[in-house]
């Protein structure tokens, strides 16, 4: 019979998704530019299900049932354009091309328009979970048309991760919406990782704990609010000992964090939308700082002074335990703020592009399969179920109470770290955001007044409606300019 779906691009992600589909009972036509990869997949895993090896794209297209569905898993950028274009030349109206790579959402929107003009569906699907998730069940964020999802959705939902029997896959919205949500997911992942790293650093420098000792502390966090995949792998990494030197593994890994760019894309888009995502931005910049070797060398050589105050932690078991608990609470509060900001960005992008993104559904499909998977996401889904139009996640009563409970700890940790020269950019930026967003008034009044003085940018008043300008270089009289 004809195949249910085709997969083009059989590197780690494509071959594992093809295997996942086959293991779930689908007949999968597979093709890769270099035929060796197709042969290797069939030789190693051909017995896991029904595969149809295809030497060429026309062969692949000919082997598929209508409407034909082809999942493209090649390098993002030019390779994706080349493969999508070749497929489009051989497919027929109504057929569906799914780009499961890490495309930029604007590229996806462009490809979708281009294929739609030829009667074809392009579905940009964000797929998270890496190599293992692709095989055992990733979190899948498909965009594209309702019509395409009607055919494709059941297959993607079937191969996705499931939590409490619910698939970690849902139709996100038109054109680039799926890749956008995947991008913000990755941005939140950056923030989450940075916050955990800051907690580790504060415990290390504040209490003088070793990496394995902190590993034990972090393992203990897995049973509470912080229960998540990232916390779990942090405990594993911290417990690991380097075989060669016998030292804790983190102590032999170079302290320069790399990035592939989705965090940067998230921040770039947030800047365009004017949404403060300070947690994600600080996390992205912190990776950049860690990799700024010449600047770090120059600072070390200049002997830039720390002039620290000393840690104010009583050296008793109770004092140390209280400090650990402060760090745990600071981490949770900062994390909630970072997620709140990420969901604000989704709302703003959704409004800007007319995507109608359901934020509660995004949190639901991130509960399994992906890097930020965590039980905590249930609470976010519930918050958006209580109020689908929720303006601010940390204003939801449950989160407001949770962050409020931690706020004193949070301030102590940021203050102590700052007094002792330990950089906590994401902790501090999240706290500053919290204080800014809850403030009864902000010094933005002064900024707007400055703007009126040097640029006649006008201002509004607190006591009556209207838009005003003061004649700063003249008699300082005020005129109403909107009347
Ligand atoms: P890569 O991103 O390393 O891409 C390798 C694949 O692209 C190979 O199949 C290669 O064929 C094919 N390809 C290239 Br490169 N140029 C091509 C062209 N001009 N025409 C046809 N095929 C071409 O593979 P990956 O790591 O499996 O990732 C696939 C996609 O999934 C990427 O967009 C990635 O960003 C995304 N993603 C990856 C992960 C992850 O954990 N790795 C997670 C989530 C998403 P060849 O064999 O002939 O060279």
TrEMBL record:
Chain segments annotated as coiled-coil in the UniProt record: none
Pfam families assigned to the protein according to its UniProt record, in alphabetical order: 6PGD, NAD_binding_2
Gene3D superfamilies for this protein: 6-Phosphogluconate Dehydrogenase, domain 3, N-(1-d-carboxylethyl)-l-norvaline Dehydrogenase, domain 2, NAD(P)-binding Rossmann-like Domain
List of residues binding substrate: 102, 128-130, 185-186, 190, 260, 287, 451, 457
Enzyme class, broadest EC rank: oxidoreductase
GO molecular function: NADP binding; phosphogluconate dehydrogenase (decarboxylating) activity
Pathway terms, separated by semicolons: Carbohydrate degradation; pentose phosphate pathway; D-ribulose 5-phosphate from D-glucose 6-phosphate (oxidative stage): step 3/3
PROSITE patterns: 6PGD
GO term, biological process aspect, one: pentose-phosphate shunt
Enzymatic reactions: 6-phospho-D-gluconate + NADP(+) = D-ribulose 5-phosphate + CO2 + NADPH
UniProt keyword list: Gluconate utilization, NADP, Oxidoreductase, Pentose shunt
EC number: 1.1.1.44
Domain spans labelled 6-phosphogluconate dehydrogenase C-terminal: 178-473
Record flagged with keyword Oxidoreductase: yes
Domain of life: Bacteria
Position of the signal peptide: none
PANTHER family: 6-PHOSPHOGLUCONATE DEHYDROGENASE
Record-stated family: Belongs to the 6-phosphogluconate dehydrogenase family.
Entry function: Catalyzes the oxidative decarboxylation of 6-phosphogluconate to ribulose 5-phosphate and CO(2), with concomitant reduction of NADP to NADPH.
Protein name: 6-phosphogluconate dehydrogenase, decarboxylating
Protein source organism: Salana multivorans
């Amino acid at each position: 019979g004809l195949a249910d779906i085709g997969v083009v691009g059989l590197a780690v992600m494509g071959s594992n998704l093809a295997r996942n589909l086959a293991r779930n009972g689908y007949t999968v036509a597979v093709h890769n530019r270099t035929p060796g990869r197709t042969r290797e997949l069939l030789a190693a895993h051909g017995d896991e299900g029904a595969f149809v090896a295809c030497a060429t794209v026309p062969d692949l297209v000919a082997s598929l049932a209508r409407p034909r569905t082809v999942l493209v898993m090649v390098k993002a950028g030019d390779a994706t354009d080349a493969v999508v274009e070749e497929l489009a030349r051989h497919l027929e109206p109504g057929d569906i091309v799914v780009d499961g790579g890490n495309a930029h959402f604007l590229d996806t929107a462009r490809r979708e328009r281009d294929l739609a003009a030829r009667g074809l569906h392009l579905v940009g699907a964000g797929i998270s979970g890496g190599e293992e998730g692709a095989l055992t069940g990733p979190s899948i964020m498909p965009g594209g048309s309702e019509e395409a999802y009607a055919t494709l959705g059941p297959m993607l939902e079937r191969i996705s991760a499931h939590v409490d029997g619910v698939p970690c896959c849902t139709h996100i919205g038109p054109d680039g919406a799926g890749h956008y949500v995947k991008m913000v997911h990755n941005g939140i992942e950056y923030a989450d990782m940075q916050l955990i790293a800051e907690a580790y650093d504060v415990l290390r420098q504040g209490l003088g704990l070793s990496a394995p000792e902190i590993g034990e502390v972090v393992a203990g966090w897995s049973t509470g609010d912080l229960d998540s995949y990232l916390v779990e792998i942090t405990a594993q990494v911290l417990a690991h000992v380097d075989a060669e030197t016998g030292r804790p593994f983190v102590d032999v890994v170079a302290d320069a964090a790399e990035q592939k760019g989705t965090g940067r894309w998230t921040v770039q888009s947030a800047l365009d939308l004017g949404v403060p995502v300070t947690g994600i931005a600080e996390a992205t910049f912190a990776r950049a700082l860690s990799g700024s070797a010449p600047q770090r060398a120059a600072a070390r050589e200049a002997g830039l002074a720390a002039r620290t105050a000393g840690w104010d932690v009583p050296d008793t078991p109770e004092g140390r335990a209280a400090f650990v608990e402060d760090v745990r609470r600071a981490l949770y509060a900062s994390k909630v703020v970072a997620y709140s900001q990420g969901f604000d960005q989704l709302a703003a992008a959704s409004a800007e592009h007319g995507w109608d993104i359901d934020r509660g559904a995004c949190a639901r499909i991130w509960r399994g399969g992906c890097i930020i998977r965590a039980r905590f996401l249930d609470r976010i889904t519930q918050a958006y179920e209580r109020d689908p139009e929720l303006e601010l996640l940390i204003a939801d009563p449950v989160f407001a109470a949770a962050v409020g409970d931690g706020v004193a700890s949070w301030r102590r940790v940021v203050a102590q770290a700052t007094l002792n020269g330990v950089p906590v950019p994401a902790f501090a930026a999240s706290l500053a955001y919290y204080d800014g967003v809850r403030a009864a008034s902000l010094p933005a009044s002064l900024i707007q007044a400055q703007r009126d003085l040097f640029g006649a940018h006008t201002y509004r008043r607190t006591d009556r409606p209207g838009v005003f300008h003061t004649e700063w270089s003249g008699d300082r009289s005020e005129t109403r300019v909107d009347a």
